[in-house]
Amino acid sequence: MLARRIIPCLDVRNGRVVKGQQFQNIVDVDDPVALGRRYSAEGADELVFYDITASAEDRQISLNFVADVARELNIPFCVGGGVRTLDDITTILRKGADKVSVNSGAIANPDLINAGAKRFGSQCIVLSIDVKQQDGKYYVYQNGGRKNTGLDAIEWAVEGVRRGAGELVINSMNFDGMKQGFDIELLKLITSRVNVPVIASGGAGSIEDFIELGQQTDVDGYLAASVFHYRTIDIADLKQELAKNDIPVRLEVSA
Q1: What global pTM score does this model have?
Q2: Distance of CA 184 to the CA centre of its chain
Q3: pLDDT digits (tens, 9 = 90+) for 228-255
Q4: Which residue has the higher pLDDT, 146 or 28?
Q5: Closest to 195 measured CA to CA, from 170, 220, 216
Q6: How far apart are CA 118 and CA 6, in angstroms?
Q7: Catalytic residues
Q8: Which residues does 182 contact at the CB level (< 8 Å), separation at least 6?
Q9: Where are the domains of the chain?
Q10: Are strands 24-30 and 77-80 parallel, antiparallel or unpaired?
Q11: Domain topology for 5-244
Q12: How many Cα atoms within 13 Å fall on the side-chain side of residue 8?
């Protein structure tokens, strides 16, 4: 069994890391480079940066921080938000990101996934899906969780992989920022249908939530924000507890 990855998520707005609850009540947290450096030192396996208002504001992602992050960090990182074209993907990768996350741009133009995977390889293309359960069904949302697309989230995940996405990030909007645990049911549904790594996002509040995630699902990555930003959970402690519960993790800390 592959080691599970611990992935802090840094939502960026106007060059600053911010955090909200269920995509609302946004507050300032820190500088992205400084926070990324901290996480690298604490043993994070990867980082994800999202420009959370680029799609909603119909603009390109703000890339000023990407090259700075690439210079400062020695762990892989993914960047997303407002990625609409193959040129956007090219620019982000050239600035030093290891992966590019597509969301609203891929919904508008699914061929973007195919094109990105063909040019750079599936390992570089991450399909991020914001999911909300309504009336017993899971729907895909876009523009930072502001718009219901009407797409079935499970089927969209399957299509994204078929088109070449090498990884999925599944963010449960119902659980986002609530600190009551991950959406186990949703994650089981998706992992049973795809054969690429799945990253769980939304709902982490305690180390026990991560242990439950590891024991009940086959997801490959555990993504969270506020519990790491505010030091509710220490990454080294989290990894030790996961290992004690027979959930494989990388225990060495990055230099």
Answers
A1: 0.89
A2: 16
A3: 988 999 999 999 999 999 999 998 754 4
A4: 146
A5: 220
A6: 28
A7: 11, 130
A8: 172, 175, 200, 202, 203, 204, 209, 212, 213, 217
A9: 5-244
A10: unpaired
A11: TIM Barrel (3.20.20)
A12: 29
